[in-house]
Specification:
173 residues; Arc Repressor Mutant, subunit A; 7 helices; alpha+beta
Length: 173
């Protein structure tokens, strides 16, 4: 589950939206399209355009996972990444944190701080958003129909083979 923080800094508890997996996937795809994102492109310009920044935190070793986020207001957020992960993992983490920004902070209307710790509904929703954002269903199906292997799909979408496998299973069901 995500760590839900309510603090003197004014952060509010992080609560799941309750949307279905399909609706969250579709929302991720719509947000990516609205922002002009094309599969495989860099995510940093998207974060910057939304008013956020990305920081690699040198002392991330004490945390149990790959990223966290602090949303201070509309167009004011920071995504924190571990220095111990690779580019593909970081891309999914960035898209995952964008999911929290869109879904759980409502584009900054709600001040939140969330650090990934375990698995709960808010984390699932952020993962679903990231999958839809990075790997739109129509393009994913088209590439598979053209005979692309899992490795080729991972390269095209710039995600890990594990992310491709999960998306493939989700779209098959």
């Amino acid at each position: 589950m995500g760590i839900e923080v309510s603090s003197p800094n004014g952060f509010q508890p992080v609560e799941p939206t309750g949307l279905t997996k399909e609706k969250v996937h579709a929302l991720g795809e719509r947000v990516a399209a609205k922002l002009g994102y094309q599969p495989g492109e860099a995510l940093e310009p998207i974060v910057t355009r939304l008013g956020g920044k990305i920081e690699v935190v040198p002392d991330f070793a004490h945390l149990s996972d790959t990223g966290s986020m602090e949303v201070r207001g509309e167009g004011d957020f920071t995504i924190y990444l571990s220095p111990y992960t690779g580019q593909m993992r970081d891309r999914f983490t960035i898209a995952h944190e964008l999911g929290h920004y869109v879904l759980h902070s409502r584009l900054g209307k709600k001040r939140i701080h969330i650090a990934r710790e375990g698995s709960g509904r808010t984390e699932w929703e952020a993962n679903w958003f990231a999958a839809g954002f990075l790997m739109p269903a129509a393009i994913f199906r088209q590439k598979r129909g053209e005979g692309a292997s899992d490795g080729e799909l991972a390269l095209f979408f710039q995600v890990s083979p594990a992310a491709v496998q999960v998306r493939k299973e989700t779209l098959a069901g």
